[in-house]
């Protein structure tokens, strides 16, 4: 893999593929689908996360911290309204309808990835819809599990501090415990996010006639995960410190910022499949 990635022809082919594949058009279409599916996905998350987490809204604070302030406020307000308006009586019908609507965005993502890989899609539409629903559920549960790990990660530090007090080595181990807590809190979310992307790129071709090897899925997942994290952090800094959108658009700046951010994310998600396609082509040659 390293030999292929250091080959100049890989990057030349990647650049030419991006130019010819109409990546911006696919990303725009995907961004629209993800935007329409975002609220149903948040509803599913709230309904399922409430089973495992005492306060799902509080558990997402770490996610909002890396988003632009205006975008984070939109998500927080949507989640607050959803949490107040939903009830146990509407749980069954609400979660099934939300699951159907939320899977539209995931279905569009699956189709975009397979087309970017050059795979022929299966003609059976219901099969793709079932796969999209399964992916939606797995994605929500993966996010819940990741949040659970973060909650327990905070408790691990407390356990280590208690053990240090018991063995009277608290002063000696306190700096190491703090470093451990900081590294765990910082590395666990991106590592879990990248793992989810690797699994997605590996299994997304189930909707087509193609197959992806694990190292190819790892390449796409690592590239996409790191690119999304970097772009999100940089975009948040620009929106919060440099952009003049709030001056001209006021409260609408958050909505515009959300749409642009989703467009960047969609571009990267489809771009990850293009990276895999170029890697496969150069490796075969």
Describe the structure.
The chain is an all-alpha fold and 285 residues long. The chain has helices spanning 2-5, 8-20, 23-52, 56-59, 61-65, 69-85, 91-116, 125-166, 170-203, 214-241, 245-249, 252-284. The protein has one domain (2-284). The protein is globular and about 65 Å long.
Summary tags:
285 residues, mainly alpha
| Secondary structure tally, helices | 12
Instruction: Give the CA-CA distance, first to last residue.
Output: 14 Å
Give the assembly state of these chains: single chain
- Classify the secondary structure makeup into a structural class: mainly alpha
Residue fraction in strands: under 5%
**What is the tally of beta strands?**
0
Report mean pLDDT, rounded to a whole number. Answer: 76
Run of helices and strands: HHHHHHHHHHHH
Instruction: Give the overall shape.
Output: globular
Structure summary:
With 285 residues, the chain is mainly alpha-helical. The protein has helices at residues 2-5, 8-20, 23-52, 56-59, 61-65, 69-85, 91-116, 125-166, 170-203, 214-241, 245-249, 252-284.
């Amino acid at each position: 893999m390293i030999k292929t990635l250091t080959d100049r022809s890989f990057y030349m082919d990647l650049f030419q593929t991006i130019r010819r594949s109409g990546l911006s058009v696919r990303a725009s279409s995907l961004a629209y689908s993800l935007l329409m599916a975002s609220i149903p996905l948040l509803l599913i998350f709230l309904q399922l996360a409430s089973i495992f987490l005492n306060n799902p809204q509080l558990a997402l604070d770490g996610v909002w911290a890396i988003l632009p302030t205006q975008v984070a406020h939109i998500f927080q307000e949507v989640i607050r309204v959803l949490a107040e308006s939903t009830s146990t009586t509407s749980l069954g019908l609400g979660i099934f309808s939300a699951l159907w609507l939320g899977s539209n965005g995931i279905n569009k993502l699956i189709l975009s990835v397979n087309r970017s890989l050059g795979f022929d899609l299966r003609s059976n539409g219901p099969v793709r819809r079932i796969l999209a629903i399964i992916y939606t559920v797995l994605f929500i549960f993966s996010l819940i599990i990741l949040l659970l790990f973060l909650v327990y990660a905070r408790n691990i530090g407390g356990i280590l501090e208690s053990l240090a007090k018991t063995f009277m080595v608290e002063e000696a181990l306190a700096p190491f415990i703090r470093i451990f807590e900081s590294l765990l809190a910082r590395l666990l979310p991106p590592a879990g996010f990248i793992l989810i992307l690797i699994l997605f790129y590996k299994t997304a071709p189930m909707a087509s006639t193609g197959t992806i090897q694990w190292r190819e899925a790892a390449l796409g997942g690592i590239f996409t995960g790191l690119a999304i994290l970097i772009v999100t952090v940089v975009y948040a800094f620009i929106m919060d410190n440099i952009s003049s959108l709030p001056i001209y658009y006021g409260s609408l700046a958050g909505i515009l910022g959300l749409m642009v951010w989703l467009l960047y994310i969609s571009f990267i998600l489809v771009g990850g499949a293009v990276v895999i396609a170029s890697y496969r082509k150069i490796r075969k040659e």
